[in-house]
Amino acid sequence: QQASYGAYGAASLHWTDWLRMDAGLRIDSYHFKVDSSLGVNSGSANDSIASPKLALVFGPWSKTEYFLNAGNGFHSNDARGTTIRVDPNDGVTPVERVDPLVRAFGAEVGLRTAIIPDVQLSAALWMLDLDSELLFTGDGGSTEPSRASRREGLEVGAYYKPLDWVVIDADVAWTRARYTDPDPVGDRIPNAVESVASVGVALTRTTGWFGGARLRYFGPAPLVEDDSVRSDSTLQVNLEGGYRFSRHLSVSVTV
Q: Can you say how many angstroms the Cα of residue 108 is from the centroid of all Cα atoms in its chain?
C-alpha cells in the first residue's frame, strides 16, 4: 500500500515592466506499507520532502523574453525496497533498504520569441541532477535504484500557424546523460535516449473535415554502462482524419 499527500504554494511578483518572478514551495509526504510473502521483508516506511522552485522572466524586448528556472524535485522508489531486509531470491542474503524519496535538482535558461509573424520559437539549455537513478532491469522486469547522475541538454521548438485552422509544430532535443559516481563498469545510463524529435501538422475546424499527422523520432541509447551495446532508433508515425458534424458530434480514424 502506498499513500502520498502534497501541498503547493506559489507567488508571482512583477518587480518591473521587464522582470517578473514566480516562487514556489511544494511539500510531499509518503507512507509505504508492505505485506511480503517473506515476513522479514514486511513493514512500513515514511518519508517527506520539500521542493523549493524559482523562475525569473526578463522582457519582453522586441517580442522576445528570456527565462531562468531552477528548483528541486524528487522521485519515489519501489515500496518493496523501502522495507526489504533480505534478497527474495534466496531469503537469506542481506539487502540494504532504499531511500523512499530521492531528491532531484533541475535548472534551465532559455528564450521565447514571436518576432517572426505567426511563428513562436523557443530554445533552452537545461540540466538535471538525481541523487539516485531509477534503473529498469530487463532480466527481472523491475526497477532498482542506481548511482547518482547528471543530464544536460538542449531543446529547440517551433510553432507555426499560417491559417486559423492549420498548426505546424516541431521540437528537437539532445541530451547527455552520465552517472556522476565513478565505477569501472562505465558511466553511461542504460536506456537514456540521447536525441528525440517531433514534427506535426494539425488541421482543425469547428465543423467539417479535420485531421493531422505526427512523426516522432527516438534516437539510440546505451543498453549497458560501458556503451558497448546500444539500442536501435525508433520512428513512429501517427495519422488521423475525421469529420465534425457539430460541437458535440464527430467521427475519426487514427492509424
A: 14
- DSSP-derived 3-state class of residue 114: coil
Q: Which residue has the cell 537514456?
A: 192
- Secondary structure of residue 195 in the 3-state scheme: strand
In angstroms, the CA 103 to CA 19 distance is 29
Rounded Cα distance, 9 and 105, in Å: 18
Put the strands of the sheet holding 43-61 in their side by side order: 2-16, 19-34, 43-61, 64-76, 101-113, 119-130, 149-163, 166-179, 195-203, 208-218, 234-246, 249-254
Q: What's the rounded Cα separation, in Å, for the pair 48 and 56? A: 27
> Angle at Cα 32 formed by Cα 30 and Cα 37, nearest 5°?
165
pTM: 0.85
Q: Could you list the mean pLDDT of each consecutive 10-residue stretch along the chain, which spans 255 residues?
A: 97 96 98 94 96 97 97 94 89 91 97 96 98 80 85 98 95 97 94 97 92 98 96 97 93 97
Cα–Cα distance, 185 to 183 (Å, whole number): 5
